[in-house]
Structure formats: structure tokens, C-alpha cells
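Friendly challenge for the regulars: who can give me the C-alpha cells for this chain first? No prize, just bragging rights.
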Amino acid sequence: MPRILTLFSLCLAALAVSATAAFADGSQTITPTSKQKTVIIKAWAKGAKPGPNKCYTVAISKKSQYLAGLAFNSKASGCTASAFDGTAILWGRSTKWNLLTAGSAMGTSNCTALKSLMGVNGWQDLAGFVSGLGCLNVD
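First reply, four minutes later:
Bragging rights claimed.
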């Protein structure tokens, strides 16, 4: 019996690693055009001057292309890590985007509501951005 449990645990671990790799390689998202990225950043900033585009990582859901995620890229030269430590989810199309939510410490009930709004495909495609909002168990 212990061998079966060990084997089962190893199989689950392998599945978890492969699922994480799928999210990490960007295969679940689309890279926005330069114009789309600019519009998405401006929609997030709401009239404030957000800084250079290189300071943000932006991705569009592959399966739900009306959803996008935004995160601050502290590794880009000239960008400071303290500017924005959370992520944002936006909705829209082409060159018209709107902020859905942003932050880094959402409560469980807000995460549940957000998952319902985004749908399973958008939630999974933008898992890295969703977890940056503070939502746990994004899979």
C-alpha cells in the first residue's frame, strides 16, 4: 500500500510541474502589439503617467482574448520595484481596454467573484497575473 501512495504522489507532482511549466512558458497567452500594450497600460493608469512600456509585462489570454493581465517589470533597467507590486486584469478588445481589477491582496470572496467574471479559460490563461492579485489556488 505505501508503494501505491508513493507512486500516486509522484504522479501528482509530475502533473503539477507540467501544469506550472505550461503557464510559465507563455503558451496560454498572446503577446499584445505595441499599440495594444500602450492602450492597456494607459487604461490601467487611468490618466496618470505610467512610465515607459518596458516597465510593464502585459499578456492577453489566448482562449479569452477580451482579457489581459498587467504586472510591473522591476527587472527592466530604469524601473523601480516599488512602483507597483501587484497585478491587474483588464477587459476589452484591440485598442479599447478597461480596468477590471488591480491589487496584490484580494480577499477570497473577491477572488471567487473574479473567477466567475473571467471564466475558467481566462482564469487559467492569466494564472500568473491572478496569483499576483493574491488569489490562491488559481488552478
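Helices lie at 2-24, 34-45, 108-125, 127-132. The longest strand covers residues 96-103. Your move, everyone else.
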